[in-house]
């Protein structure tokens, strides 16, 4: 069963790669995009990385990733103005289909939940299964022409643009950070400045340590294991804190850091791409007050509730 | 010498502040971090290539885009506006608070409802925009951008602060496992119960934030209306 889902996942990567390659092909022919060559190469490289990623030698993949960076660094990626929105058609279709227009979207959202419940091994592939299933249903309901389907694929990929790969790239950066020992250095730095024997300072260091580590590494799970051993045990738990409360609060304290960091690309940068926001850090900026207030609440709760 | 690997963090910060192309900054930060910590250029490229291809899952949301595009072409947003218009007294903030509540409660039952590609982009954000249009007729780009951000904030808050309330969630299991290996007894079930407190606080905070958001919007549009 597990190997089946491994194959399925690889199959989904190949489809995504074809989608990127198609966007490259369309960019090549796009007269409205004055940087169409750079744009096309960007999508083709991404297509290769997705279709052949499993078989490419890692060095070659690495070089291709650098190629992506070269294109964007020299500002050779441009946007298309090919697509013209047809509001009238959308309004007519809404009146015709009524709430049926929501069916594909709802199928995608809930099929993921249902499938992952029924077949736990499927977890990583559910988004692909849901996407294809809901696409099929959308085609049955709306009966679009082939051209319309291709137009929409291209429009959406061009719109999410280069931001779409940022979360994945940041995950790769995280891997290099781990390999370079960045996490250990951060943990050592924080534990070096906290005085022993003061519960309030210990709690504050633990909460802020979880946040800072998560901001840098982008992952509060990694932060929890490192910071709990380095700061949580000597400065909080050894002073008599209730491990259940301290543990629960330390993890969510890390999430205060997650709200602040572009390193958590999946949560903070991905929506920028999906919602086509102008400000790359628009989501993070709106989360700053939440993160700060929640961090203060974590410190106070851990101090008064766990002791 | 010891702190040299932190240079990558510094590069990222400087790149962000100076608004240099983010993709290039991330790649440069990765390569330099690897090099200063003693890896060869080939080793760094291997890590970069491996890290990228092994994380292709993160970008798998592109598969959902065709369906979302088609749904939009065939009237998803128009119908969302129509539906929201029918509900009296619904504001952006109230709608988003409702989403936050549903998301947190579903999390308790291990239903990982939500996600930016599955829920926010196709459903929650268009409906939030629609409820602004229903109240203020026409919204400008600044407002639309703020609503996009606010919808994403609610998704993240509901996801992060409520996920550990389920005993079998990976976060809860990690807390229990890590503490056990460090010699402290903290069963997952008790951690899940303790996590309810922060989930409840985050729900309250989200609601307060949404009420504030509504006030900002109504202030902005009342003023604009008064000027005319």
Task: Detail the topology: elements first, then pairings.
The complex is a heterodimer of chains A (307) and B (228).
Chain A: H1 2-29, H2 36-52, H3 58-73, H4 87-97, H5 103-118, H6 126-142, H7 146-160, H8 166-180, H9 182-193, H10 199-217, H11 220-236, H12 243-258, H13 265-268, H14 270-274, H15 282-305
Chain B: H1 7-17, H2 22-36, H3 41-54, H4 62-73, H5 76-86, H6 92-108, H7 116-136, H8 141-162, H9 170-181, H10 188-227
What does this structure look like?
The complex is a heterodimer of chains A (about 300) and B (about 230). Chain A is an all-alpha fold and about 300 residues long. Chain A has three domains: about 1-75; about 85-145, no CATH class; about 180-305. Chain A is about 75% helix and about 0% strand. Chain A has 15 helices and no strands. Chain A is globular and about 70 Å long. The N and C termini of chain A lie far apart (about 45 Å). Chain B has two domains: about 5-60, no CATH class; about 60-225, no CATH class. The model of chain B has no long low-confidence stretch (mean pLDDT about 90). Chain B is mostly helical. In chain B, α6 packs antiparallel against α10 and α7 crosses α8 (about 140-160). Chain B: Keywords: Membrane, Transmembrane, Transmembrane helix. Chain A: It holds the Pfam family DUF979. Chain A: Keywords: Membrane, Transmembrane, Transmembrane helix.
